[in-house]
Amino acid sequence: MSRRSVVLTVCAAVVVALLGVAAFAPLPFTIMYPGITANTLGSYPEKASDGQQPQQVITITGATVRQTSGALRMTTIEATAPQDSVSLLQAVRAWPNPREAVVPHDAVYPAGQNVQQVNATNQQEMTESQSDATTAALSYLHLDAAKVKVTINLASVGGPSAGLMFTLGIVDLLDGNGTGKAGAAGDLTNGANIAGTGAIDGAGKVSEVGGVALKTKAAARDGATVFLVPSSECSDARANTPAGLRLVPVDTLGQAVNALKALQQGTGTVPSC
């Protein structure tokens, strides 16, 4: 073998070795994917599993609660744990997959925060979201918050993105057909499996939350046929939308209720992304 051939062989071996190391070396990325959904009108988990007993997601005292049908599903996304490294090989494999998203690690886990701090922030946002959802729903129904108490139990989920679906769950349990009058008959869902996402404030304004393209996958996986989404995130929601899932943009609680009423009654206009 000539000297040139030896040099080329050694160089090739070095390159292969470097590529092998690079393929498994940790990168500053996190992989996200569709998470759990929970019916805010029912219990979570919906069936007992791994020793976890179902618990009612929304409990209301101080007012008559209706027997509901259908589902109003809040949706989530999950991510690789902050201590788990993502290799180049994993990132390349996940990148073209519509059911996964590769994002900068700091976009999910802010630099300088440990797992406990991230979880604490997410739980604080969830607590505020539940409070705003209760305020928005009771205000919409003209009910006295001093008399009607709402408890939301979904300890395994953090962040603000379930606000809209919590609010609609409270409205449906107390109202039903979206008249704004507690005790009204009918169902806000008309028995359908509705999912959605969106933060909400006490005045009923819906705002964007992120991760919509993955949440639509979670919704479709769990049987939803309609997905409520903040209108500013329509373009993200349209990315590889699962077949059979109807996207309905909303900016306020009132718009969401009106859209569901139009869907259940088959009359009026239902907005579309």
UniProtKB/TrEMBL annotation:
GO terms for biological process: proteolysis. Its EC number is 3.4.21.-. Keywords: Hydrolase, Protease. The keyword Hydrolase applies. SUPFAM superfamilies: Ribosomal protein S5 domain 2-like. The keyword Hydrolase applies. GO terms for molecular function: peptidase activity. InterPro entries: Ribosomal_Su5_D2-typ_SF, Ribsml_uS5_D2-typ_fold_subgr. This is S16 family serine protease.
